Amino acid sequence: MNMFQTFVVLIVTQRDKPVHSLSQEARNERVFTALNIDQALDARDAFAKALYSSLFSWLVARVNHIVYKGTKQTAAISILDIFGFETFTENSFEQLCINYANENLQFYFNKHIFKLEQQEYAKEKIDWTTINYTVRLIGNINVLLCKICTK
Q: Coiled coil: which residue ranges (predicted)?
């Protein structure tokens, strides 16, 4: 079974519906306009993003329901998955902003997590060596800021 067939089995009960929704555009009533390959791929990608977002929201709600059963607390799960700069053949201004935000978030995370861990080690009198975790990240952030500030 290929990925599309698996998708149909898991998500849709009628096999022709995903083909129509990913290859045709409905306007108001039941009038369909054929999409070209790029439009169909965009529709597929948009659907995948919406599906992922819905599944993730459901998962967070389910975890919160289980963890906070019977309480009135509101909670959230935040996941930040950052692994350095993303590189493409051509990087846009949007990608620069994303990379800059990622570097700042990673710096903030490291600063607070390492600080808390080091405080815990000191409190428990655990022998440890100070880790200089800011050098690379602050260098990346400063390079971006200096270029922007000198213009």
A: none
| pTM of the predicted protein model | 0.36
Measure the CA–CA gap between 137 and 101, rounded to whole angstroms.
Answer: 12
In angstroms, rounded to a whole number, what is the distance separating the alpha carbons of residues 60 and 65?
8
The CA angle 124-77-74, to the nearest 5 degrees, is: 100
**Cβ atoms of residues 81 and 88 within 8 Å:** no
State in Å, rounded, how far the first CA of the chain is from the last one: 56
- In the block, tokens 């350095």 appear at 84
